[in-house]
Amino acid sequence: MSTGKKTIASQTSDLPEEGQNRRQLLLWLSSMGLFGSAFVSIFSNLVFIKPRATYGQPNRFAVGKPDDYPPGTRIALGPQRVCIVREENRVAAISTTCTHLGCIIGTSDTGFACPCHGSRFDFDGVVTGGPAPKPLPWYQVTLAPNGEMEVDKDAEVPMGTYLKL
Ligand code: FES
Prior knowledge:
By secondary structure, the protein is α+β, with helices and mostly antiparallel strands. It has two domains: 45 residues; 105 residues, Rieske Iron-sulfur Protein (3-layer Sandwich), CATH 2.102.10.10. The chain has two helices and eleven strands, in the order H-H-E-E-E-E-E-E-E-E-E-E-E. Strands 1, 2, 3, 4, 9, 10 and 11 form a seven-stranded antiparallel β-sheet that branches. It has a four-stranded antiparallel β-sheet with strand order 5-6-7-8, with no helix packed on it. The longest helix has 31 residues. FE2/S2 (inorganic) cluster binds next to loops. The site of FE2/S2 (inorganic) cluster has 12 residues, from loops.
């Protein structure tokens, strides 16, 4: 008498074995999908915690051997944004980043000149004109054991500080 009014629970238990297997397979697949998407989500978030890109030049870098800079030369290294100054037996590194708004400045007959807003600096980086508020920083130059000079842009030194060769 109760065949037309079976409850869902009793219908489930009455499913043939093939139906049970299909249910278990679907349950397993949906569980794997859920765990898989959770794993991918967690993994992708962990990957982005540590940035893998580097931005710009390192602050400590080699600039070559002293003989690469004959006495009297002033060579601006564009990517590193420093000017290597060689005078007789001493070497210095002066920033070529303008202290106004950060443009790359170039060497000129009177020292340095910024192409952006016209700031001018003398050979030591002292402001001689334009809107730049501060002189150009000087950086520490050291001689590495392999004979190459290294500039450390994290180590500012007083103006007029040279590496003696
Ligand atoms: S950025 Fe050099 S003068 Fe403005």
